[in-house]
């Protein structure tokens, strides 16, 4: 696959269709600047700022854009709130639609056939594969991303974090907790 991509890039460059410098910039942007740390900032702000949280849940796109996270594959954002009774999980059954501006590029498993097919038919099994066990009665709602709508999960704020600043809380927000295949870290997980 890598060889094929490189060959394709060479041909397109030779023919003048792409500028290698522009490609490098694009890749660097998604490797360094854009990533789950963006989403973590959104989540931590929602955990500490009730007004922002309300805005985020009603107008996800605008609230996220207000922090400067805008761009391709994030035009139409819907934020899903996890509660003690409801766990949200995101998939793209068709391909790999993903909220790039807040999470960066999708992980390989997100694009894999097993995840895409099982997330809907057997979400508890998928969560078990991710070492996530939810309480018996908790409802799991699976959301299918499309080219039009991208989802971000707002996980529950971990216990034992009273008085924490948004900057401190950001460290608890994992990528998977914003897809719904994981939970945020607990304070004891990052204690050094
Ligand atoms: Fe897709």
Structure overview:
This protein is mainly α. The chain has 2 domains: 1-33, no CATH class; 36-189, Nitrile hydratase alpha /Thiocyanate hydrolase gamma (Nitrile Hydratase, Chain A, Alpha-Beta Complex), CATH 3.90.330.10. It contains 12 helices and 4 strands. It has helices spanning 2-14, 20-33, 36-48, 50-58, 60-65, 100-103, 108-111, 113-121, 123-129, 166-170, 175-179, 187-190; strands spanning 77-81, 86-91, 139-144, 150-154. It has a two-stranded parallel sheet with strand order 1-4. Strands 2-3 form a two-stranded parallel ribbon. The longest helix has 14 residues, at 20-33. The model has no long low-confidence stretch (mean pLDDT 93). Residues 92, 94-97, 145 line the site of fe (iii) ion. Fe (iii) ion binds at residues 92, 94-97, 145.
The CATH architecture name of the largest domain reads Alpha-Beta Complex
Low-confidence stretches: none
Question: How many whole angstroms does the radius of gyration measure?
Answer: 18 Å
> How many DSSP-defined strands?
4
Oligomerization category of the chains in this entry = single chain
Q: Approximately how much beta-strand content do the residues carry? A: 5-15%
- Tell me, rounded to a whole number, the average pLDDT: 93
Q: Provide the number of structural domains.
A: 2
List the helices and strands and how they pair.
Elements lengths: L1 H13 L5 H14 L2 H13 L1 H9 L1 H6 L11 E5 L4 E6 L8 H4 L4 H4 L1 H9 L1 H7 L9 E6 L5 E5 L11 H5 L4 H5 L7 H4 L2
Parallel strand pairs: 1-4, 2-3
Helix pairs in contact: 3-4, 8-9
Bound molecules: fe (iii) ion (FE).
């Amino acid at each position: 696959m890598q060889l094929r991509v490189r060959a394709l890039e060479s041909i397109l460059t030779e023919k003048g269709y792409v500028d290698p410098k522009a490609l490098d910039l694009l890749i660097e942007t998604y490797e360094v600047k854009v990533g789950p740390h963006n989403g973590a900032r959104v989540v931590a702000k929602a955990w500490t700022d009730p007004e922002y949280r309300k805005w985020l849940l009603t107008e996800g796109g605008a609230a996220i854009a207000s922090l400067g996270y805008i761009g391709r594959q994030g035009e139409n954002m819907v934020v899903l709130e996890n509660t003690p009774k409801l766990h949200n999980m995101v998939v793209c059954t068709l391909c790999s639609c993903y909220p790039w501006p807040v999470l960066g590029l999708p992980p390989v498993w997100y694009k894999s056939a097993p995840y895409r097919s099982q997330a809907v038919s057997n979400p508890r099994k998928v969560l078990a594969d991710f070492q996530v066990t939810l309480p018996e009665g908790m409802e799991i709602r699976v959301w299918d991303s499309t080219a039009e709508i991208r989802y971000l999960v707002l996980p529950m704020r971990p216990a034992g974090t009273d008085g924490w600043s948004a900057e401190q809380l950001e460290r608890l927000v994992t990528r998977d907790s914003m897809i719904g295949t994981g939970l945020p870290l607990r304070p004891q997980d990052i204690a050094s």
